[in-house]
Amino acid sequence: MSDVTLARFDDVLESFDPVMGIEVHVELNTRTKMFCGCATTFGAPPNTQVCPVCIGLPGAMPAVNHKAVESAIRLGLALHCRIAERCTFARKNYFYPDLSKDYQISQYEDPIDQDGYLDVELEDGTVFRVLIERAHMEEDAAKNTHVGGATGRIQGADYTLVDYNRGGMPLIEIVTKPIEGAGARAPEVARAYVAALREVVLALGISDARMEQGSLRADVNLSLRPKVPDAAAQAKVPFGKRSETKNVNSLRAIEKAVRYEIRRQGALLSAGQLVTQETRHWHEDTESTSPGRSKEQAEDYRYFPEPDLLPIEPAKAWVEELRATLPELPSVKRARLKAEWAFTDREMLAAVNAGAVDLIEATVAAGASPAGARKWWLGELARVANEREVELADLPVSPADVAAVEALIGEGRITDKLARQVLAGVLAGEGTPAEVVAARGLAVVSDDAALLEAVDAALAAQPDVAAAIKAGRVQAAGAIVGAVMKATRGQADAARVRELILQRVSE
Ligand code: ZN
Ligand code: MN
Prior knowledge:
alpha+beta, Arc Repressor Mutant, subunit A, nine-stranded mixed sheet, binds zinc ion
């Protein structure tokens, strides 16, 4: 990829507006496939979950999976789509070894979900509305594994294995309208959109949406449109030629792929060259894209109505029943929790970005105050997670543990400082907070007699400091407080120690 010139991102944005179109395929978690009764278990031995229908043997008849239709309607409702009163399936004809039927059953002219939107929260809290063109039902193709090449692609491979277990798996493809006006934030908008869509899918429980396992796959179309000063004229400037980067399989990669394509296309256009309309592949190792199929001529898939399936006409009452039972959606839930917890925008954003919202919710449910729960998850525990390079949720500490630590502080049995040691013990697998306090002997020394003994010893060890305090230089007491805290291994209440020091020197 050394022959590719990249322009500076900011330079490109001075002359061009990026326009994106994002297609996401979500594999549904139904027990059986889209048009047959085959199981859908992930990771089953190759070609063990197949039947005459999903490999397309003569005479086999498909039947629509009711649960898949239900999932498609629920997703459409969550995305504010119109649910088609009548929709059909079509055959999309093409040859590839992963498609033994030579056609894919998909929806074409009348998708089940039409004209919706998804409001996407960006990192600074602003909301960008992405318009949804359609979401349609279809079946997945089989999985090709190209063996022997360096890249895992067909070029340079010795042979290819085909696993038809994936053939016929139920998919929903969600297609956006052109996403314009994001400017320099286009990479962030693309990532945030797929992240938000994934959250909705997970909240609905219709897919496990694992990008790394391919149950959620994103293709990103990108083109650059010349900027003109006049806003009215801008709308008339035609879209540029687009590239379609396929199967970008992490949120981070989506952001990087968009950024890369903006820089690559920007360099071409600035040099007076043309962008080729083509599919491209994202390479995680080099963080770049390379050309795949040229799409200069739109492919003609010879779509025609699937003759073996009846149209789907979801009853209005059923759709309304599904609407009434939709779960609270992630963005709505966040707004509710923010109000309930009395968090500022900034505090809520920090919790969201740290992936701590559910943890704080569970900690509050276990009895902690929202502020206390936030303090530990975003403070000490975030620090440890960062150090260990793991997600907060993967730390070996539970919301109940954090709530217990808060309770111990509230009862005055430990200080904030001791709480850190208690959490360290829990993280080290030493048991519950109460067990760690007992085993490590971490309870606050609240016995004044014991504290006075330590205060006297510290004053005796630093007579000049004692004299200074006596002479009215109260701030000098800090040195004695420090000595007492050290002597009690941090188990004293510093405020109480200060009181005792001042009391002692005035006696
Ligand atoms: Zn089958
Ligand atoms: Mn598709």
